[in-house]
Amino acid sequence: MTTTTWDDLVTSALLGTDRRPPSPAATPAVALLGRDRRPPTATATDAPAAASPLGTDLRAATATGPATGPGTGPPSAPTDASTPGMDRRPRSPAADPAVALLGAAAVHTVRRRAGLLPAVAEPLPERAPRDSRPPLPEAAARRLGQLLADRPSQGGGRRGAAPDLTELLPQWLAAANTHGYRAPAPALPALLDAARARTDLRPQALAFAGPRALWLARLNPEWKFALRGASGGTALPAPEDAEGVRCLWEEGLFAERVALLSAVRAHDPGAALELLASTWATERAEDRLMFLDSLRAGLSGADEEFLERALSDRSRNVRSTAAELLSALPDSAFAGRMAARASSCVGLDHTGQRATITVEAPHECDAEMQRDGVVPQPPSGRGKRSWWLGQLVEAAPLALWRDRLGGRTPEETVALPVADDWRDELHAAWCRAAVRQRDPAWSRALLGPASAPPAAGPGAASSAALLSTLPDAERAAWVAAFIAAHGLSEAFQLLGVCTVPWSGALGRAVVDALDIARDAGSYPWSFSGVMGLAERCLDPSEADRLQVLTAASEEPADASPGAGDYWSEAFQRLVATLRFRATMHTELAPAPG
Fold first, then answer.
1. Cys-Cys crosslink for 259: which of 231, 232, 433, 481, Cβ 3.0 to 4.6 Å?
2. Are 269 and 298 in contact (CB under 8 A)?
3. pTM of the shown model
4. Whether 90 contacts 99, CB under 8 Å
5. Is the Cβ–Cβ distance between 214 and 232 less than 8 Å?
């Protein structure tokens, strides 16, 4: 009720007492101030006998003559409005809504303050843990403050020649973590706020923030994500310390347990599996999924029995992950079951002039298929049979097809015609299998030559996934050739999987394509995404070579209005960002010696 009355008073103050007089429920509270706190409205004889000094002074201020002296009572208050000093007396609250409003506000303020009851002080939090990593260089610490203070740009295409600092923060954090620095204590709240707002920052930000980030996160519910998102630099027991490992596994925070499982897995895969199995039945479904995903590192046949049991998990996501991991073990019983199912659906027909792949998709999804991770219900717009076929083929070992399709290489197999319009579905499933099984030979075959028309390939998303299985240098060379042949319109996703900084050949291909687009009068804003990638991924040493592109050029007659200025501005921003990145990395470099 007090809150409602206070809101009424605020509303009256904002609107004005003429438009919104204080409510009758609020104005009587003025009387609680005491008559001795304001001048009387008639005569001094109305005042209480034991007037407070404040009341006496106020009454004296309205009198028509000096006080009679210390210890004497106040003189009579004037009763004639013409008496000197009368206009200095405040009017009655009832006659002045503004005075009534202020008086009511004063009373409610006192009420609210008096309503806070004393309480037993909470115990002090435990001391923040030590972080033994070396401190940031002073210049790098100032740069971090600058990056954290920047705000993401709003609205459409970004304009201006200044670097976009929010997009450089992930790169700065990665470099700082590479050098093993600890975060400055005053920057921890801003780091946690940034990681809360951007999930892509969380792994690097929490690793940099270290154990003190977890300490702070326990004190602020808005940062609770940190307790589940990463280890935060927590000191882990040595993998061979069985007692320490067991204690942290049973009592630690989720983030600490994930980090512990990964550390033990890297040291002794069998011990990590045993640790996970010891509490598997009591873990939450989302935690089981995260723990299971950690088995990707060091995956081997020794994990098969545990993963087979996980195929019966009550969580569909856990079952799907277990099936995916088992499909990466070509000698597992699971892979054998999926190979048998897939081979019954895909075969080779030699009756025509040329060998052709034939497809007979499954007619049902039985209980055994569902136990092995086949999802029975397709997404909207997909047929059931093609949905089931794709899941079988992507989970089958790729080595199956050499024997099944006449001993052909991946390139020869991919080149075979597929009957009844099943080609796209079959090739898409092979793409997913190549990515899942990290098979570069099949990835090369499915990608095809970079100069081939994009429409003949697997599509941008699948091509990007296939490229991720190739060595870094080969990946960059393929994308550079693709851009040289087809330009940038289909290349954004492909560039996203290339190692940063880009190789010299790839960087030159991107910049040349941007320059060609400018000279052709292309719509400039359609290349803003690629330009943003170039700012973050080009080698900073290219800045001086690109300076010549910052000059404004003459716009072609059919160019978009203002395109020339935009391109000049965009190249200025590119050069400025490359130089900023170069300075940023120099500041992070450890001092010599």
1. 231
2. yes
3. 0.73
4. yes
5. yes
Q: Under DSSP, is residue 115 helix (H, G, I), strand (E, B) or coil? A: coil
Residue showing tokens 């070992």? 397
H/E run at residue 102: helix 97-114
Q: Which residues, including other chains, have CB under 8 Å from residue 143's CB and lie 6 or more apart?
A: 172, 584, 587
The helix/strand/coil state of 28 is helix
Token pair recorded at residue 110: 């006192």
443/343 Cα distance (integer angstroms): 21
Residue type, 138: E
Cβ atoms of 254 and 234 closer than 8 Å? no
How many CA atoms does the CB half-sphere of 470 hold within 13 Å? 24
The per-residue DSSP string of 37-72 comes to GS--SS-GGGS-SS--HHHHHHHHHTSSS----TTS
User: Would you give per-residue pLDDT tens digits along the chain (593 residues)?
Assistant: 445 578 888 888 888 888 888 776 665 545 444 444 444 444 443 434 333 433 444 343 334 444 444 444 444 444 444 444 444 445 555 568 888 888 888 888 888 787 777 778 888 888 999 999 999 999 999 999 999 998 665 544 545 778 888 899 999 999 999 999 999 999 999 999 999 999 899 989 999 999 899 899 989 999 988 887 554 445 678 888 899 999 999 988 887 898 899 989 999 999 999 999 999 999 999 999 999 999 999 999 999 999 999 999 999 899 999 999 999 998 999 999 999 999 999 999 988 889 999 999 999 999 999 999 999 999 999 999 999 999 999 999 999 999 999 999 999 999 999 999 999 999 999 999 999 999 999 999 999 999 999 888 899 899 999 999 999 999 999 999 999 999 998 899 999 999 999 999 999 999 999 999 888 878 777 888 999 999 999 999 999 989 988 887 666 666 666 677 888 889 999 999 999 999 999 999 987 76
Neighbours of 31 (CB within 10 A): 11
Q: What span, in angstroms and rounded, lies between the C-alpha atoms of 90 and 553?
A: 73
Locus of tokens 């939450």: 284
Residue 239 in tokens: 């993998």
Nearest to 257 by CA among 246, 271, 267, 243: 246
Q: How far is CA 65 from CA 68, 77, 151, 439, in A?
A: 9, 10, 65, 105
